[in-house]
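Model it.
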Amino acid sequence: MAEVTWPQLTRRHALPGGAPVSASPKGLVRRWAPVAGEWAAGLVPALLFTYWARSIHDNPIARSGQISGLADLQFRLTLLGLPVLVVAGWAAVRGSARTRELAVRLASPAVAGLVSGFLAGGQVFMLRGTPYPINGISGDTGNLVYWSNQVIHTGTFDNIYPPGIPHIAAWLAEAFYNNQTDLVFKPMLIVLTALSCPLVYLAWRMVLRPLPALGIAVLCGVALYLPYKQYSPLILLLLVPVIAKLAQWLRGSPAFSVRGAVLRGLWLGVMLSVLFLLYSGWHVWTFPGVVALVLCFFPWRRAGGAGRLRGLLLLVGTSVSFLAISGGYTLKMLSATSTKDLWCSQITLTQPAYIGELPFNGIQWNQPGLFPNFAGTFTGLDFYTVAMIAGLGLAVALGLRRPAVAGLVACFGGSWLLRFYFAERMVRDQNVRLFPHTTFVIQYTLTALAIIACVLVAERLGALTRTISLLSQDRAARVPGLPALPRLDAVRFASVGAMAALLLAGGLAGSALTDQYLPTPPSEHTAGSLAWSAHQLRKPDGQCPEFANKGVCTSLPAQPPAPTTVTTGPLVCNQLWDE
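Modeled.
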């Protein structure tokens, strides 16, 4: 009887069949060629899908045009996704073990790329005819436009906001847009959206096998979709797997050489500092959990003093490279003690233990604390929350010692702790400290833990099935006339089934989210008002966008207005749509 194979959670460092990786040129090619293939298989479909969406010519303002556009995107997703699944299915039936492994490694990032390409294609469609991003140059985008202009003229900008995005936008404006920073953000945000799921998949591949990484990339990448500020959730999605990799390397550091420990630490510091310079809030909210994670995974007893030395060198290398790259901004941020976050929306006024849907995903939520549920409630908890709680418990019970699980639990715990610490001090200090943003960390980590819990349960079921099959075979051989259990050939399609389910889930969720951001008049109080505003701004050539309301549009000011965010005084509590 052929052995039944199930998808595994942890990334293996040997080639299929257990063969060690050779250090010869041929061995290096054999090792790194599939890695390069994964990068290409994820990024290329995402960008091509996004570019293809430019050929959708329906009206993004009229509801009938919106339906046609969404249907077109869904049709294209199916058209591109089916060949990926067919190839993976053929490999499962006809391919060798290495072919099946390679097919899963290439098909998984392709599915991730198609899902985020769908989201980016939705942005291309909803912004058809206007050169400006969602929300125009208002809100966060307006602030970034102002700071990017400051960077162009002075080389820096006067704010404690992370410097990465303003400097990147300034460079792009100088290189491609004749210093017009307001034209940078539409293509930049669309490209970031397109690359989100593949990049998250590739980040989680540092610690996970392809299918669990794909599950997190698709489900969490879509759930944290913010088209008007996509760089922010993307940094969070990438940060957590880097933290998990830190735990994995720290635990394995006794086996490293001194040089290997230092180099690995330097590389971790580079990744952490680049993410920090792009958006620093996630580092702050996960910091307490990371400290606990480091203390738990440090090799205190393994390999004696040599093991502790290599663990210490790993941490020193991480700290040195992090401070060398982002130390200046870190000091600037820590010294800004007088700057306060005074914005108090209805999200802030919702009971602080609520972690369900946010009001960007619904219609006419203009009261604090009113959020939808589905499948009923359990003592005030919706179905999503109950499922995530169950996933947390299973993941901790079955895999707490695994770096991926421990990293997620640490980030969840740190954010959970700071959420209530900041909320408890909000009135006394007259400072919100952006504590509602921890909702994204909590949702992400709990969803990822639930996905990993499903994989861990599958691993246990796979081991149980193999054991029962072997016992049945052995007993049938000893007892004449006793049949053995039937072969479970259908398990060979587990990878194809998982990819098909995730592709469908990504398409359905992507369509729902895109629909919520399609242009609608501000009077409807929906997230569609953000895309609507982009169509009401006059283009650089003096013409109104094709779908401006009644052909009337507003001219942009000669210079972008300075940010008007109030950082001193009492809390300012407004509803989401009070403008």
